Model the fold of this input.
Amino acid sequence: MTDLAPSPTRSVTTTTAPGPGWLLRLHRPALYIWIGAVAVLAVGLLWLGGPLTDTSAAAWREYNKACNDGGSCRYDQDSIVRYKDVYAYTTGALTALPFVVAAWAGAALFGRELEQGTAQLAWTQSLSPTRWLATKLIVPAVLVTAGTGLLVALHRVMWTAGDGRIDTADSWYANLTLHTNGPTTVAFALTGLAGGALAGLLLRRTLPALALALGVVGAVRILADLAMPHLWPAVTQISSLADGYRSSGLGVDSGLVTSTGAHIADPGCGPTSVLGGCAKVYSDLDATGFYTTYHPESHFWPLQLTTTALVLAVAAALAVAAFVLLRRSTATPTRVGSEAAE
Done:
C-alpha cells in the first residue's frame, strides 16, 4: 500500500490548526445541495401529510359510499392517485439518502482529496491526519443526522395522518415505510458516511471509493432487513385449518401445527373452507391448524431501536477502521538502514 505520510521536506507554514469552517468552505456546493434537498423533501412531506391526505381520505370515503353501496361510483380519483405518487416519490427519495451520503463521502469527501493530493497537502500544514479525519466525520455526521432525522420525523407524522384513512396506504411493516418511519434510516446514512471514509482511505480513488461505499450501505441494509425480525421476541398466533392464516404484521415464520404442538412446513394446500380436498392432506400430516410467528405494530419501536443500535455499531466499527488505516498509512517509517550505517 502506498504510504500516505506527508513529505518530511515540507515546512510548516501555519501555527494554528484551522477549525471545521475550512471543511464547510471546501464542500460548500455539497452543503447547499444537502440543505436544498432536505428542504424540498420536508415541504413535500408536509404537503403530503396535510392537504393531500385530507383530499385523498375524502375521495376514499366517496368511493366506499358510492361504489360499494351501489351508487353511481363517482369519486375524486385524481386525489387518490396524487397521494399515492407523492408518497412513493418522497419515501423513495428518503430511502435513497443514505446511498447519496455514501456516494458523496466515498467520492468527494475522501476519495477525490486523497487522489488529488489535497489531503496530503493539508497534513503538511498544522492539520494532523487524525484531526483531518475526525473533522471530516464529525461535521458531516451532525448535518446528516439533523437533516435525515428531521425528514424521518416528518415521514412518521405524514404516515400517521393517513393511517386508517387511506385505503391503499402502506402498512407499517412495508419495507420502505418501516425504515423511513424510524431512526434506522439515520443509522444507514451514518453508515454511508463512515463507509465512504474507509473506502476513500483504502482505495484513494474517486470512482472505486464511490462504488465501494455504495456496496457497504447496500450490504448493511440487506443484513439489517434479515436481522430485524429476530432482534426482538415475536408472537405466535394459532388459527384453525378452516380459517387459514390470521395475523397482520412483520412476518417471521409460518406453517402447520400438529396435534402434538409441533411446527411443520406448510405444503401450500390452503384453508379447508376454500379447498375441501386439503382436509386429507392435513390429516395425513396430523395437522390441526396454522401458526404464524410475527411482530404486531406494538413492536415497531423495539424493532427500530434494536436495529438502529446494531447498524450504529457497524458504523462505529467502520469509523474506527478508518482511523486505524489512516494511522498505519501515515506513520513515519523508521530509518533502520541509516542507523546501521552509522
Summary: The longest strand covers residues 250-258. Residues 22-231+298-330 form one domain.
